[in-house]
Amino acid sequence: MEIKEEGTSEEGQHFLPTAQANDTGDFQFTSIQKTPDEPQLEFILGAVQLVPTHSDPCKDLVAPVRDRKLNTLVQISVIHPAEQSLTRYSSTEIVEGTRDPLFLTGVTFPSEYPIYEETKIKLTVYDVKDKSHDTVRTSVLPEHKDPPPEVGRSFLGYASFKVGELLKSKEKLLALSLRTSDGGKVVGIIEVSVVKMGEIEDGGADHITTEVQGQKCALVCECTAPESVSGKDNLPFLNAVLKNPVCKLYRFPTSDNKWMRIREQMSESILSFHIPKELISLHIKEDLCRNQEIKELGELSPHWDNLRKNVLSHCDQMVNMYQDILTELSKETGSSFKSSSSKGEKTLEFVPVNLHLQRMHVHSPHLKDALYDVITVGAPAAHFQGFKNGGLRKLLHRFETERRNTGYQFIYYSPENTAKAKEVLSNINQLQPLIATHADLLLNSASQHSPDSLKSSLKMLSEKTELFVHAFKDQLVRSALLALYTARPGGVLKKPPSPKSNTEESSPQGQLPPMRRQDSIPHHSDYDEEEWDRVWASVGKSLNCIIAMVDRLIEGDVGSEGSGGHSKDGEKDPLPADSITCHPREDWYEQLYPLILTLKDCMGEVVNRAKQSLTFVLLQELAYSLPQCLMLTLRRDIVFSQALAGLVCGFIIKLHTSLRDPAFLEQLQTVGLIVQYEGLLSTYSDEIGMLEDMAVGISDLKKVAFKIIEAKSNDVLPVITGRREHYVVEVKLPARMFESLPLQIKEGQLLHVYPVLFNVGINEQQTLAERFGDVSLQESINQENFELLKEYYKMFMEKMPPDYISHFQEQNDLKGLLENLHQNIQAKKRKNVEIMWLAATICRKLNGIRFTCCKSAKDRTSMSVTLEQCSILRDEHQLHKDFFIRALDCMRREGCRIENVLKNIKCRKYAFNMLQLMAFPKYYRPPEGTYGKADT
Ligand SMILES: O=P(O)(O)O[C@H]1[C@H](O)[C@@H](O)[C@H](O)[C@H](O)[C@@H]1OP(=O)(O)O
């Protein structure tokens, strides 16, 4: 078969478009048998032996090779059977200075990849003369031809095989001849052997030598029979949220000279787009409702009416803007990835940048298989809005300070009071229809004349009505009522009233100057302060009447004489005895009907007044500094949306991977989950603003609770309910999985998350900040979040069962780690990356969800996650110490993260220059040839 090179494709794990992949034309191809969700095929390249001296292939092939040892790499290409063209798929790392290289990077084809027994794989071996030029290539080189010398590599030989030949071969191993470009001369041998993740290499001891820093090291591949991970990993449901996986395979030696196998996987998520769309819809609903309530505030005096008109016109514009963004996003059907280069696009503002699951699956001898997940994502930040004036942390503080000190145009309510007003309004909106439904159910029970059903309907009605009455037990409602009264035509007070509430506003951290305020609700001769009490109390009273009536009806029904009604709390019924009399059984409905009507009327009156007064509070919040205050809300929504998309993705993945772990479920239910963010932003220039956005976005995640529900259809995407101060994310699980959950979770218990952020800037900008700028932002974030982490730990220790805790303490010295983290934060050392390592370790030990972020989650993030992966292999899986750097280089050179760079900027180069790298902490520098000037 003639092999045609694919003209323009860049090396990488690009999948053929589905239509193309499945289009096998007239041919019938043989699928590879495998368990679902397992890779289709994985193989490693055993020893490559190039024929030495007198028949030295290199002598004929590449003259300069004679004078030095080879630096070899194998490039793997795929020839789809229906086509005649060849697609570059992946490469091994470069093994330096040997003629019999041993490659640590293997090849894996994920389950989605269109590969058949008839698919041909081509292996091309190169000698890399100049590493710094090698991976900087951006186009495909012609096969069978020496690359131009300036590219820095020379062709040594090639071999090819059909996938079916490998699968059917004895021991699933092929020893293939490497040939010259014309296919004539044999220049060496290359071994290919199939890998199954559930198996360590078969057979007896197989001694392979390789050179490590000048030393020969004996590596022994031994047979063991470890537990298969497929049970744990077999989560087809996850495919509904994870898309386009990129998979890489490595084998690394352990300290006792055995092999461990590592599968690295990176997937994007459709939640990147789904969550923003859900959230924007929710904001639109919330804002439309608020705008309507502002319109329905009733008659206001001219000053307030003008203010209202102004607010409404801006708020309507804002809703239109959200609607436009939603329309634009809805056009992106099926999208699951926003690239770093799109981070400033207005229509994609709510979408997180470069969100991925970065997973490492370790299969090592004698140890249980392990999965390590990190969500990598660009720091949640409002790139389109820009950072000229800083980010949310600063902007919100400045806005609040100014608002507090600007007097008479409007009334100042603290953020806490405004939040409370929103909460009460939301409670009212939920409770009023609920009470009405329960009241109707009570009437229904009455018409059925069923005492039991009457009692249980009454119980529900009482509970909800008590909640309703309780919702207004706040001074804020009173002060808002008075404020609104004074804003009505003719209701002008000498000074605007100032709110007084149980949570009287105090300056956060004592930073805000005291505001002009009055100590009590101002007196107004026409204002009847007790009127509200009477209206409010009428709801309780009418409930008591209903309770008393139900008592009497039931008592009358069982034949006993009416003995005077008792309210639920045992008090004598407030109604006169003759107003509630015992009637014959058929009158139950008629007896209760007028009382229910009264309850509904009273409730309506309370709702009407409270809604208007609290909406008036919201009007004050909106009135100050239009349209800036709305832009601030927009900015906060944008940042939150990006943060939430990541969180939901992390939560769902965690839930799926830990569903069979009872301790995890217990923790989820009783304590909640820690969510740890590693930030790599510098505290210099624009990144200060990003960090300020990120800190608020992550802290806002506290407002999110999760609820797990059973999926009733194939639509398993999460649903968001609630409002800005309190969101509930409903995660759907298929019946089989849902059934395995603890009862409380199945009953809809809300599950909480505890986000923490630790940031350490590592690049050259951070050097500038340390020398000439200010690092206080980073210091205070780390200090504040340390306190939050400590609180979580305390809660964990208190709430988890004692048996679990004693075992946990034996295994982990969390106290020591926390102490160490604290000391490192206090130490104020420059670029103290120890802070990130400790925080990540603590998070893993606490079974939390890990995130790593930098501006784009592309370059610095890639350095950090690969370092974390190799550190885990060293600390938890006995990675041979001599191979630490080599493993790190393999992952950075040919692993998932270089593919991440490629998919973001269409170029396989980390965007660092030499000067930048000199400023990086040592282990954050990528290998030679993988970085350089890139158009980001
Ligand atoms: O993924 P990042 O580390 O945020 O990418 C940075 C990179 O670190 C830096 O060296 C380079 O100059 C660019 O600013 C990268 O950011 P982009 O957002 O432009 O990809």
TrEMBL record:
Region described as Disordered: 1-21, 492-526
Pathways involved: Signal transduction; phosphatidylinositol signaling pathway
EC number: 3.1.3.66
UniProt keyword Phosphoprotein present: no
Gene Ontology molecular function: phosphatidylinositol-3,4-bisphosphate 4-phosphatase activity
Biased composition, class Polar residues, residue ranges: 500-510
Keyword set, alphabetical order: Hydrolase, Lipid metabolism
GO CC, any one term: cytoplasm
Bias (Basic and acidic residues) ranges: 1-13, 516-526
Chemical reaction(s) catalysed: 1D-myo-inositol 3,4-bisphosphate + H2O = 1D-myo-inositol 3-phosphate + phosphate
Similarity field: Belongs to the inositol 3,4-bisphosphate 4-phosphatase family.
Name by which UniProt lists this protein: phosphatidylinositol-3,4-bisphosphate 4-phosphatase
Organism of provenance: Trichechus manatus latirostris
Name of encoding gene: INPP4B
